[in-house]
Specification:
Layout: H1 8-30, E1 33-34, E2 57-58, H2 70-92, H3 102-105, H4 111-129, H5 140-167, H6 176-208, H7 214-217
Parallel strand pairs: 1-2
Helix pairs in contact: 1-2, 2-5, 4-5, 5-6
């Protein structure tokens, strides 16, 4: 095992995924979505300019194409990039590279993993209540479980995003299936944002407590 506990390809992918995912989430929140309304919007005074995805749309008459904004095009490109990176990560999860194996990402899938995860949570819960985190070497199962959940959420987002990429209509209202996929996509994105927020907070707390956790995952080590 490397000094950081993760092989270099995993550390490099971690950095690329972090950069692309955070950028993608920001773009997704700020972009306009090209969509044709099922019912014409009522005329009125808009006091607040819509800014968030699926709140500020570019609409058109059914049958006429809606112009795709730069933000939406960037979102599509980044989405395909993230999907490709996740696919590579899933392939690496089938290897024996340090920190790569899928069993480490989903410890709850095995009896031994569930036991280790439960023991770590039980011994660390008192520290969590006081805002303290155990050293990284004493919380491997918890940390990699979070990585696994982020990867799982990213996989679902990638699958639903790919369906939307090929199925999203800019000339007619969306079908019920596409609307369901879009809703699922947004719900999982919300879960991913919560996971990433908790992950970043944990990194900040670890660094503040002198654990230097960034050295374990930085790609240049």
């Amino acid at each position: 095992m490397t000094e950081q506990g993760y092989a270099k390809p995993i550390r490099l992918l971690h950095s690329l995924l972090a950069l692309c995912m955070l950028t993608q989430l920001a773009v997704g929140e700020l972009m306009d979505v090209p969509e044709v309304e099922k019912v014409p919007a009522a005329t009125g005074i808009s006091w607040i300019t819509p800014a968030y995805a699926h709140e500020g749309h570019h609409h058109a008459i059914p049958g006429m194409p809606v112009e795709e904004t730069l933000g939406f095009e960037v979102h599509q490109f980044l989405g395909l990039t993230v999907a490709a990176l996740i696919l590579i990560r899933l392939m690496l999860a089938m290897t024996s590279l340090p920190g790569a194996n899928w069993r480490e990402l989903v410890p709850w899938a095995s009896a031994a993993g569930r036991k280790q995860l439960g023991e770590e949570i039980k011994t660390q819960i008192a520290g969590w209540k006081q805002g303290k985190l155990a050293p990284p070497e004493d919380g491997e199962a918890v940390a990699r479980c979070v990585h696994g959940l982020i990867l799982l959420a990213g996989t679902v987002i990638g699958i639903t995003g790919t369906i939307l990429f090929f199925g999203w209509s800019t000339t007619a209202p969306q079908t019920d299936i596409i609307e369901l996929v879009a809703s699922t996509h947004e719900v999982i994105v919300g879960g991913l944002e919560a996971l990433l927020g908790a992950h970043v907070l944990a990194v900040v707390m670890h660094q503040h407590q002198g654990h230097n956790i960034i050295a374990r995952i930085k790609p240049t080590a």
